[in-house]
Design a protein that fits this description.
This protein is an alpha/beta fold. The protein is built from 18 helices and six strands.
Length: 381
Amino acid sequence: MLIRLNELMKGRLGPKEELEVLDIFDSLTEIELNTAIVSLSLTRLLSQMDDHWIGLKNRQRLLEILTIERLGVLTLESKSKLLSAFQKGWTPKGQEEAICRIFVSTSGNELDVLKSKMESGVAFEDLHNLIYHDIDDKGIREKILAHFKANTPTKASLKILSDIDDTIYANWKDEKYRKKTPYPGMVQLLKRLNQSDDGGSRSDLVFITARPKEPTKIAVRHAEKTLRRLGFSKPIILPGRLHQFFTSSTILERKWKNFMEYKRLYPNHPFIFFGDSGQGDADLAVRMLKKKGIVLALIHRIHPYRSQKWEDSRSIDGMFFFNNAIEAMEKLRTDGFLDNRVFKVLTKIALDEAAEIPGRRGSKRLKEHQASYEKVHRTKK
């Protein structure tokens, strides 16, 4: 049957072939069904199956087979493959309902794994985009989000939110470094926080940025390319909006909205946030901390420096301002997010990377990092 299904998929499906496809899916064994879902181009299949204006609704019938009648035998891999296919192009009401059925049929740790599988690291193809943009029906969205809230995984992993410009690399207002210079140790710190027990990458690092999601999507694609170049193989990005890109207050509001939406996707996970002092990240962090949405905010001091009065007005429990990644690492160590062995490795990496920055600016930054390195290791002893 799988051979015949593959043969049918090579050509254009007419009404007769559509019915044959439905009969095949209806009669496949559990193993055959999951094999077919994982191996076929579901996007092409869904586009070929037609809901005729007059007559049979074959696409809808296929969704019923896959997400109602046979839903109980689908593996997590099959469920994620279906959800990914629903993200391609327009998502009609029938597919929105199918998305809801798939999520609601999954619970506990398996739900957490399924959500992680949706974080593809491809712009506009992630869980946030699926729930808040592909699904238009508010009732369906709220049903899914309520299910997320009701299901707590056995071990809720740490979610790391990070700004990009002037947080990971100098690219906006910071005058301490040449433009495009990655901050020593920051990339390795974020990658380590997102590392799984087996040494691979989790899907818990999310970049929240002001870069707008405009019609051409150029800004977000560029951010994705930059992050890949820095070493983040599958960056998950929560972008801004073009009409909210021009002032610090509107940027803050967009980032806040994105955070609140994303928090609802993972309501039972602890969050930390990395930002910088250049725009509204510190004010965003204050909101996050007051709402108990995060447990720690780490704000990078950039040059020109803010006044001490400015920092003091934003200093609440959970807020930490740092000059370089070594200071941030020390805070994460003392708060239990890094063990001593990893802390030692990461601080040495930051110091070595600072030594590689050329010119007079590099000399100043190296002295700063050396002072921080000596201080945190002296304190640790």
